[in-house]
UniProtKB/TrEMBL annotation, chain A:
Membrane topology listed for this record: Multi-pass membrane protein
Name assigned to this protein: Transport permease protein
Gene Ontology CC, one term: ATP-binding cassette (ABC) transporter complex
Spans traversing the lipid bilayer: 21-41, 183-205, 231-253, 259-283, 295-313, 353-371
Entry's Gene Ontology molecular function annotations: ABC-type transporter activity
Source species taxonomy: Bacteria, Pseudomonadati, Pseudomonadota, Gammaproteobacteria, Oceanospirillales
TrEMBL record, chain B:
Keyword Hydrolase: no
This protein's UniProt keywords: ATP-binding, Nucleotide-binding
InterPro entries: AAA+_ATPase, ABC_transporter-like_ATP-bd, ABC_transporter-like_CS, P-loop_NTPase
Name this protein carries in UniProt: ABC-2 type transport system ATP-binding protein
Molecular function via GO: ATP binding; ATP hydrolysis activity
Superkingdom of this protein's organism: Bacteria
Gene3D superfamilies found in the cross-reference section: P-loop containing nucleotide triphosphate hydrolases (3.40.50.300)
Length: 376, 313
């Protein structure tokens, strides 16, 4: 039995190493994704392009503008004479928001409680200006909304009252709040899902498509041996990808890797096995490589959207959470972030590990049962 | 004891009422087979007549819709795994790995059949020499010629010295010279005791078999040794020579007693129903005194008489 598995393993490795395209993809997919997510995609909105309608034209209005620029949230790229003009610019998409400072802004500012703590007459309290925001992008809208309570003491020449905050927030992990720190370990999970499922699902289908299967079935190879031999090389491929992503992420984006190598390795292997068996199950359904590709995408989309990679798991509706729980990637996403960023040990994550293990066993059973059938 | 044993013929393949339906399409219809051990048996038939499907049923690759199969003395059903070690199968389509070399392909198949170490090395060298593949050992299988591929496929199918060998159209991509060579190998294997079942649509190949079955649309139309089939042919062969054979052919095929007329070079080969008392004079009258002679029946004549609408019971 082991001779046969080993023979298939060696054969598959040789074929893999000769297939330049696939081999290139194994390396390039993680690198390209890492660049995209590391540099281009940033969920903290910064330097949003905005416009200004300043009817007050005072030193105070300029001070307000300076204070806003200092937050780095917005860049004033244009000035307009009226709200009308600014609205057109928003519609055209030239700016995402506009700040309107009315002619009596200076008076409003002096009456403002954040500016003058002696001012208690709420009748006189009015906002000093208005933001008009293109609300279609919620990330931008919420960034601007966060400017509502911007302290005005930099505008005033004296220290204004500091209202004591209701909560104090201490940030344990990722103190600088960089998205990339959370993204890189998550990327490990997404890329493994993609490549592991895709490669295995097409590996078996390729065998039937090229007519090799007809011969193999009449040899003493058993289906379980064929499956183990065929997916074993991809365990190595998967580990290689984990290493690339974490190493390059650490080196280029200074993403900390706090957990132990052993826990990382253990959780990665568990997840790789789970993804590979999922790919195997798909391969018993697909008849052509194109079909296996389509099915991979069918799994990949919820894996990216629901696993907590893009949006926090806790914020999803319950039904979506159930679907997410069924996907191996959700469990691995939790594990790899916990291990890489919070130095959790594998033991601490027993529930997720157990689930991946069970998924693998279930997958192998289903795949070998179905596999038998397709041979007729 | 000896006399008793030798009387009894041992069969490598016995099939009774073997059928395979694909939906409404009947690919194989109630096939009965008895193939003695140590013989070469042929399936002769046109495209789509069910040769490949029959072989897949007999190798256990497909499950039969009906019927029983006994392979090498064991019922196929339930013994598939044990029988896999004793049978070899060369598929119609090349089923080895194009992106592996000849050596690597053989190595892989060897390991699959449990050959290791020295034993494997010795067997591979033997096969490379036997099938004249030594020069190609390091070549990728995908880049080889049709004949070389076919020799590699045969080497892989016979690597474990099977007792029963299935060959599905093994020579379809091979020139006549290599085809002769290939059949020499088959006779060597047969002499060593291997039973061979080979499918083909070439008459000359079918003629080399010890026995064959003529198949059409899933049915076995006739079977027996080539000689027996020719002897039992329900028609007489008359050859006509002369000019304007095309027109003559038209007139002859209209006649109810004439099964077929086909032009072969300068002759017209006419098959006349056996019940016609004097076929020569019949044809002479019909062909306005052109030269007519009786000819020896060929396997092709057998094939023609037992397929199509000319099929005579
Ligand atoms: N998997 C299948 N599903 C449906 N129909 C099939 C299947 N396999 C074969 N057939 C049908 O069964 C019939 C016999 O096919 P088969 O491949 O056995 O022919 P063949 O004699 O090997 O022909 P060829 O000389 O072209 O190889 C054909 O009509 C074919 O369409
Ligand atoms: Mg065929």
């Amino acid at each position: 039995m082991w001779i046969r598995i080993y023979a298939i393993f060696i054969k598959e490795l040789k074929q893999l190493s000769r297939d330049r395209m696939t081999f290139g993809m194994i390396i390039m997919i993680p690198l390209v994704q890492l660049m995209l997510f590391g540099y281009a995609i940033n969920t903290d909105a910064r330097h949003i392009h905005v416009g200004l309608v300043d009817l007050s034209q005072t030193s105070e209005s300029r001070a307000v503008e300076q204070a806003l620029v200092a937050t780095q949230s917005v860049d004033f790229i244009a000035r307009y004479r009226s709200i009308k003009e600014a609205e057109v610019a928003i519609t055209k998409g030239e700016i995402r928001a506009v700040l309107y400072l009315p002619a009596d802004m200076t008076r409003r500012l002096f009456n403002h409680p954040l500016y003058d703590h002696k001012q208690t007459d709420s009748q006189l309290t009015q906002p000093i200006g208005q933001w008009i925001v293109d609300g279609s992008d919620t990330v931008i809208a919420s960034t601007i909304r966060a400017l509502r309570n911007m302290p005005l003491d930099e505008v005033a020449n004296h220290t204004a009252t500091r209202t004591a905050p209701s909560f104090e927030v201490v940030q344990y992990f990722n103190p600088e709040q960089r998205t990339v720190v959370n993204i890189v370990p998550g990327l490990v999970a997404v890329i493994l899902t993609m490549t592991m499922i895709l490669f295995t699902s097409s590996a078996i289908v390729r065998e039937s498509e090229h007519g090799n299967m007809e011969f193999l079935i009449t040899t003493p190879v058993r289906s379980i041996e064929l499956m183990i031999g065929k997916i074993a090389p991809y365990v190595l491929v998967g580990l290689l990808q984990v290493a690339i992503i974490l190493y390059v992420g650490h080196w280029m984006f200074s993403v900390p890797i706090k957990g132990s190598i052993l826990s990382l390795l253990g959780s990665s292997i568990l997840f790789i096995f789970a993804s590979l068996t999922l790919g195997l199950v798909l391969s018993t359904i697909a008849k052509t490589q194109l079909q296996s590709m389509q099915m991979t995408i069918f799994i990949l989309l919820p894996s990216i959207l629901l696993s907590g990679f893009m949006f926090p798991y806790d914020a999803m509706p319950v039904a979506a959470q159930w679907i997410a729980e069924a996907l191996p990637v959700t469990h691995f996403m939790r594990m790899i972030r916990a291990i890489a960023l919070r130095d959790a040990s594998l033991l601490l994550l027993g529930k997720d590990a157990l689930w991946l293990g069970l998924f693998t066993i279930g997958g192998i059973i289903i795949a070998s049962l179905r596999f038998k059938k397709t041979l007729g | 004891m000896i006399s008793n044993e030798s009387e009894q013929v041992e069969y490598a393949i016995e099939a009774k009422g073997l059928s395979k339906h694909f939906g409404n399409n009947i690919a194989v219809n109630k096939l009965d087979l008895k193939i003695p051990k140590g013989s070469i048996y042929g399936f002769l038939g046109p495209n789509g007549c069910g040769k490949s499907t029959s072989i897949r049923l007999l190798t256990g690759l497909l499950e039969a819709s009906e019927g029983d199969v006994t392979i090498l003395g064991n019922p196929l059903l339930g013994h598939e795994e044990a029988l896999k070690k004793r049978i070899g199968y060369m598929t119609q389509k090349f089923s080895l790995y194009d992106d592996l070399t000849v050596q690597e392909n053989l190595n892989f198949v060897g390991a699959i059949y449990g050959f290791v170490g020295k034993r494997k090395k010795a067997r591979l060298e033997e096969l490379l020499a036997l099938y004249d593949l030594e020069k190609q050992a390091k070549q990728f299988a995908g880049s080889m010629s049709g004949g070389q591929k076919q020799r590699l496929a045969l080497a892989c199918a016979t690597l474990h010295s099977p007792e029963l060998l299935f060959l599905d159209e093994p020579t379809s991509a091979v020139d006549p010279e290599n085809r002769r060579e290939f059949w020499e190998r088959l006779f060597d294997l047969c002499a060593a005791g291997t039973t061979i079942l080979v499918s083909t649509h070439y008459m000359d190949e079918a003629e080399r078999c010890h026995a064959l079955a003529i198949m059409e649309e899933g049915n076995k139309r006739a079977d027996g040794s080539p000689q027996a089939l020719m002897d039992a042919m329900p028609a007489t062969v008359v050859e006509v020579s002369g000019n304007k054979l095309r027109q003559l052919k038209q007139t002859l095929t209209q006649h109810p007693e004439i099964l077929s007329a086909a032009q072969i070079g300068a002759h017209l080969r006419v098959l006349v129903k056996k019940k016609v008392q004097d076929p020569l004079s019949l044809i002479s009258t019909l062909s306005d005194g052109r030269e007519t002679v009786l000819a020896r029946p060929s396997l092709e004549d057998v094939f023609v008489t037992c397929t199509g609408d000319r099929y005579v019971d």
